Here is the input.
Amino acid sequence: MVNSRARRILLAAVLAWLLAILCTPTAALAENTAHQRQLADYLAAHPGGTVVNDNEISYQGGRFVVTLRRAEVGTTATADCPWGWYCFYEWPNFGYPRGRLSSCGWQNLATWSWQYRVESAHYNLGSGYVSFYYYFDQRLFDVGAGNRVRSDASPYRNWANYVYRYCP
Here is the structure.
């Protein structure tokens, strides 16, 4: 009888422990919820995008891609634009969110609500360059194959409305 009672108590304790583990949100679950909220907030403020994953939203079939946060938390702020793209960041020293394009010619940053948001830039293509403009006739700065990064767009932070990529 005592053995049976001890088994029931042990079983009840194990079940209570399992229930507590399953009902308590883990750090990963909380992080995933925060990422989903960040995606939803960004899309509410900048509609028309398609969620690629819990960190990226694409616009116009992938022509423009926004990455919301640096993939590796705790890494130092470095230029990290993927090969084949040119990127611009909302903060100096490549602070996220990050927008990226690869098309040649004129692009109106307002198309993706990125006008007045560029504070640093990285060009990660093998040739050519991109110029950032306030208006079509007011060139602010360039990044390109010969000068890949601009960690601070000062004195033109948050001025860019257009970009023009010069392709060879």
Summary: The domain at 46-166 is CATH 2.60.20.10 (Gamma-B Crystallin; domain 1).
